[in-house]
Amino acid sequence: IEVAVDSLDDALAAVACGADRIELCSRLDLGGFTPEIALLSELRNAAPDTPIVAMARRPGGDDAVAPNVLETIARDIEAVRKAGASAVIFGCTLDQSVDEAACRHLLSAADGLPCVFHRAFESLRRPQAALEVLIELGFVRLLVSGGESVDTPQRAAALAMLAGQAGSRLQVLPGGGIRAHNAVLLAEAGASGWIHTSCRGPHPVSRFSAAQFQLLRLAGTEPG
After folding, report:
1. What is the mean pLDDT of residues 162-174?
2. Its pTM surpasses 0.90
3. Does 210 score more than 60 pLDDT?
4. Rounded Cα–Cα distance for residues 178 and 184 (Å)
5. What is the average pLDDT score of the chain?
6. What DSSP line would sit under 77-144, residue for residue?
7. Adjacent-strand bridge partners of 141
8. Which of 95, 100, 161, 157 is nearest to 128 (CA)?
9. Are the CB atoms for 25 and 90 separated by under 8 Å?
10. Would you tell me which of 16, 77, 146, 196 could form a disulfide with 175, CB atoms 3.0–4.6 Å apart?
């Protein structure tokens, strides 16, 4: 289970519960932006063995990112790499396609750090063609919901199609509204057994919920 968090307290709570990987960002309520480097450094020191995926994203959206913002994101990526991130997640689009030039620039800034394309993928017009572009560019993973607004079987079918196309060339990571009732089916559809979730509880909605996490763990270990 990869858990998305935007505070040190939530990150450490998720690690204590047994999170297998952390996605660290700021302003999770707005879709996630680049975390403060001090926060990343604190988490790396406190949880040295836990993989940390750092968000690299700035306010303003992911489509047609302005050159000055792109340079800021590139510097963000260099900074999180030096601060000990295990991977970085970003996504740039242009006219409902992958912005190949922008992505190449950010991949170069990563300098070998594994790169993940985030849910901006869901705005793309031709997802199967876009997936091939991501693989060619060198992304190692794709975070995608399979259609959060549709029912679980439809989501699973969409994820399975992408995972089948990608094969061993790229990992499809299911994310978005994943809870105990749909976790196993979506994890299997992604073909890797991984899921991505914020595990936020109802009170308060912005905080990691250990209870929600444990329900996910139980769903994944119950027979059948």
Report:
1. 98
2. yes
3. yes
4. 9
5. 94
6. HHHHHHTT-SEEEE--EETTEE-HHHHHHHHHHHTT--EEE-GGGGG-S-HHHHHHHHHHHT--EEEE
7. 116, 171
8. 161
9. no
10. 196
